[in-house]
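Thread title: Can someone regenerate the structure for this chain?

I was given the following input by a collaborator and told the matching structure tokens would be attached. They weren't. Posting the sequence so someone can regenerate them.
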Amino acid sequence: MRVLIVDDEPTVLDFFAQAARAKGVEEIETASSGEEALGKVIAQTYDLITLDIRMPGASGLDILSPIRNMCPHALIAVISGHIPDDFTQEMAGCADLLMHKPVNLINFNKLVDGALLIANTLDEMKKLNDVDA
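Best answer:
Regenerated them for you:
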């Protein structure tokens, strides 16, 4: 499973990366800005993307829809201490989960477990389709 953690706070990046590693995730990348995240998503697909809303430059709101379009099968969790008023229903539809900071380890582990289950299920379905083809 491949994970992308997007947040402008280094301590949050480290916390989520360490927690994902502890769950057995080997492919973990981080981005500290929206622009950096978009560059990574253009170059790579991900199974789980955690996305902070408030960041300097391109915010999580600015990149949410493009990320969903580039990674349609990824589990996208918007994680923020403050959900702004302009977080529309359309934007909410691009995210699979909305989590408020601070996120505790138990809830983050549940998020990773869910993403692992989805990624494994999609892999199994692909294998079945390859056999049938």
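Strands lie at 2-6, 27-31, 48-51, 75-80, 97-100.
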